[in-house]
């Protein structure tokens, strides 16, 4: 039985590490979106005295802002940068800690599942293109591309919540910010 539990712990720890690393990828994507947004805005200000206006800067800035927000949804969740009430949970003792852990995971997974259930409706109603967000070959960005990061992040948040529930079931501790305990070993 102990060997079986050890194998499960290793599998769950591996999934947890992979999700943590994907959170890092999403953080990088957020930073790249922010850098591109700031670059486009700076270029707008710098070109203005020369009476030059690049009309597609604004639509791409808005697209990048939306993507930054949606990639950040998963990054904030998995990297534990969301609002936490640890001081209260610690007063509840071990049972309260486990209960709050499972409850927050259930809520995280539940919200993500609701978002994913809405994906077909959102994608069907997001017809057309983002006006002015030109692609290198001249077409405009399809409106559905705005929402893809939201649904990817939602799926990853649900996976993270389910992984943490599995960690709890096999006796692994909850991750704590700012350091990921399994990554430190």
Automatic annotation (TrEMBL):
Record field: transmembrane: 20-45, 57-78
One family name in Pfam for this protein: DctQ
GO CC term (a single one): plasma membrane
Keywords per UniProt: Cell inner membrane, Cell membrane, Membrane, Transmembrane, Transmembrane helix, Transport
KW DNA-binding (keyword) present: no
Localization per Swiss-Prot or TrEMBL: Cell inner membrane
UniProt protein name: TRAP transporter small permease protein
